[in-house]
Amino acid sequence: MPYKAPVRDYQFLLNDVLNIAQYSNLKGFQDASPDVVQAILEEGAKFTEEVVAPLNAPGDKEGCVLHADHSVTAPKGYKEAYLQMVEAGWPALGGDPEYGGQGLPHVVATAYSEMLTGASSAFAMYPGLTDGAVAALSVGGTDELKALYLPKLIAGEWSGTMNLTEPHCGTDLGLLRTKAVPDSDGTYKISGQKIWISAGEHDFTGNICHLVLARIEGAPAGVKGISLFLVPKFIPDANGNPGERNSLHCAGLEHKMGIHGNSTCVMIYEDAKGWLLGNAHEGLKIMFYMMNNARLGVGLQGLAIGHASHVAAVEFAKDRLQGRALTGPKSPDKPADSILVHPDVRRMLLESRALLEGGRGFLTWVALQADLAKYAEDEATREKANDFLSLLTPVVKAYLTEKGLKVTQDSMQVHGGSGFTEHFPASQYMRDIRITLIYEGTNGVQALDLVGRKLPSKGGRAVMAYFAEIDAYVADHEAGSAATFVKGLKDTKARLMDGTMWLMQNGMGNPDAAAAGSLDYLCLFGLTALAYSWAQQAAAAQAAIDAGSTDPFYADKLKVGRVFLERILPEAEAHLQKMKAGSEALFALEDDSF
């Protein structure tokens, strides 16, 4: 069952919905003409479908191998595909031109990233972690470090990792013990153990650049004493090429439920040479640039794996003959009808498609905000886009992974008993996607971040601006051709506003109540975001139909959107009521009674 990249949907989102051509005056967008974007989508699909996707199932079965010399080899074909990807320039697609990148908009690079991740999430994590390292180094690196490392990282010749977690220390980073001792040459000696380091060791690139959180001797306790260091596998020589081997190594590979093709390492640092990024004791401030990049990437991963599993389920359903339609045989010349005739199968497939297409629209809109935050000509637009990006990052990460898991689960259900076997891809997708709800901050942590940090930030400026954005859209379109979708958006946004006011009135006086309802609030926020996207997509599709288009894509888009309105959007009221229930029931049972 071959992977199919969502090329047509991205054409629609970038051209019809977001109309990115309107930003042709902005940096990056100047080179993103419709023809260029079309070529990127088509060539990206060709590479991911033909080169990467065939590695997914074999890579899952083979996994990575740790050798006696602490080197790691990835599954067969991974290195060759990675080098082919670098040769074609794919990692540099959205990179800064000052350091050799192609400088195309992030919203365009996001489309390619989903294709790559959908083809093989384990493979895509190798360049994906490098993107985060580039983000942190761009903010915290000196001019010398940026000139040395960024060109090679952006090109994909070197790769990057993120080292936070320790055996005793996960989300609570204030407990970390990895230490940094100043050296006479201005660098630091880094010593400690880090676990769950994705792409921590492999043989794809000439160097692996680890970004490591550590505590300088004498630093304050807790998170206020954490610093961030660049610790390369090989110390660059005078010519900027990999030189002396640094004193770090992979001590073990994690045996995981999924993403077997990615080397998840236990890393040991023994007086390894590291360079401080930014100021001492301000490591988390810089690391958050990398973490936020990763969180958006994980949301994309949830969407991408969900899409891949859905593609497999649709193909299976078309081919699988089982039973007859309740209204009479649809294929009387065959011994049975395809399972597509059964309402429950159609429910699962269509609800999945509605979530995926709404989620893709949401993700793409957020990616555009990242471009506007960076390149918009006026400060007010940049500020608003940056506020949206900060506010919605936990929603992207948590909601798209929650719904990606649901799509993947339903896709396995469509396969029936076949999905529980390894002869079909459903089980691998289920194993691969499950981690997305956990890493880069569990979804519960994302919900706490949204409620506890993002909502009150700057006096609630971001959330009020987002509400105003939706209100303005509703006012402009509620009498238009997609009025039903706009009404769905308006009603759901009203519930979100209700939930926000409840949090303001109850959260400060009872933090447990706010925390208990935080994930339901985040899901309500996610539903609103998808309702906004579906309103935009429905309007664009209807406009194309009204203009005379006979492309069935547009009519199908409206039919799928109707599924969203009737079968998914009603969940908003349930989330609101659960949120308002507070925490009393959760704390009524004594700890000893668990």
From TrEMBL:
InterPro entries hit by this protein: Acyl-CoA_dh-like_C_dom, Acyl-CoA_Oxase/DH_mid-dom, Acyl-CoA_Oxase/DH_mid-dom_sf, AcylCo_DH-like_C, AcylCo_DH/oxidase_C, AcylCoA_DH/ox_N, AcylCoA_DH/ox_N_sf, AcylCoA_DH/oxidase_NM_dom_sf
Record flagged with keyword Oxidoreductase: yes
Keyword Flavoprotein in annotation: yes
Residues of the Acyl-CoA oxidase/dehydrogenase middle domain: 162-271
Domain of life: Bacteria
Domain spans labelled Acetyl-CoA dehydrogenase-like C-terminal: 467-589
Domain Acyl-CoA dehydrogenase/oxidase C-terminal: 282-450
Domain Acyl-CoA dehydrogenase/oxidase N-terminal: 38-157
Cofactor: FAD
Keywords, sorted A to Z: FAD, Flavoprotein, Oxidoreductase
Gene3D superfamilies, sorted: Acyl-CoA dehydrogenase/oxidase, N-terminal domain, Butyryl-CoA Dehydrogenase, subunit A, domain 2, Butyryl-CoA Dehydrogenase, subunit A, domain 3
PANTHER family hit by this protein: ACYL-COA DEHYDROGENASE, BROAD-SPECIFICITY LINEAR ACYL-COA DEHYDROGENASE FADE5
Family that this chain belongs to: Belongs to the acyl-CoA dehydrogenase family.
Name by which UniProt lists this protein: Acyl-CoA dehydrogenase C-terminal domain-containing protein
Taxonomic lineage: Bacteria, Pseudomonadati, Pseudomonadota, Alphaproteobacteria, Caulobacterales
